[in-house]
Amino acid sequence: MDVHNAWGYAHYTVVTVGGSASLQNVAHEDCRCFNFQVGFETTGYVSASWSRDTTAYGDPVDGGLKVPVEALYHEYGAIQSFTRFNAVGRGTGGAGILIYTTDNVDIEQITYRAPDIFIDTLGGTAMVVEGRTGNRVNRFVIDGGSVIGADMGAVFRFGQMVVRNTNIVGLDGNGLEIGTGATVDLHAPMIEANRDANGPVAAVAVPINTIEQIRWYGDGRVAANGPITSYSIDKTLVRFFGTPEITPFGPPIPPVPGSILRERMFRIPRTDWIVSGTQDFQVRINLTASPNDRVADIQKAHLIPTLEFPFPNGGVYNPTVSFGTLWIDPTQVRIYVKSDQPLTGWVLKARLTEYA
User: Fold this and answer.
1) Most buried of 63, 186, 234, 291, CB within 10 angstroms?
2) SS3 state at 83
3) CB neighbour list of residue 289: distance below 8 Å, 6 or more residues apart
4) Which residues face 83 on adjacent strands?
5) What are the per-10-residue average pLDDT scores of the chain (356 residues)?
6) Alpha-carbon distance 214 to 208, whole Å?
């Protein structure tokens, strides 16, 4: 079945999320769509269902008026189990694959096998999988195939994600961003980031903004092509059970005695933190007050965050927390904080050391 010029959903599978009914054994096979808001959409209590050999083209082929595309493939709501085989997607749009939770329920399991996705829109992302509003994607698997974005390759947040032998590429952006609350198992993928070598922003193949477990199995490849500040993956944040090809290696931390250019201390109260989850927080440090504020070289900047709570007696108590850091560019860095406490009243202290 072919669908053209849909000012909404071209192919739609849905069941109410307000009751206990489940829509089972629904299949799409050899279906295509051209020019739509969403190509293939699945939502609600859908279980034991699948699609095979589908194609979503975001542009018209009959001269029709172009419809703004939200996503080529879109799953959300209380999905129990759903699998897409050989999903092909091409065109402009916000996302190629877009999966997120809604209606205060988790997504149980979604699998993509051998997809072939390309989004040619700057600012668009080839694949976004995330839990929202306090819920999680309990299991997402992408097995084989490729997802390529003219901007970023993929983003994972708040869920359990598995990547097997998949090619993930950002043609003018990062490869696979692993965000807050994401636990990820990588089985020999090929992940690549690209940016202008003369531009101001580094290419990062796998930026990691979570303190959950990230595991890499087998070989595979991870690469970043761009300015000298670009790097592939921070190996200190990943448990490796294999030997992937990593180019370039990094990011290095050069604690060389006697080579310190300058040190700075920042204090950010809890009221200025961004709440990313129930007890997940993000703290942003902007180095833009003057041209001299920016760091000279991100790869030679070392940031050490700590937490403190000033009691009336002047004592300081440091709780057990986990931190993650991500440099956006030489003028801004993000610190990710995770704790089993809400940390009301606490202060984040960050010591920034720059080396020659």
Assistant:
1) 186
2) strand
3) none
4) 50, 111
5) 90 67 74 94 84 91 87 92 94 90 90 94 87 89 94 93 96 91 95 87 87 90 88 88 81 51 89 76 86 83 76 50 76 81 83 81
6) 9
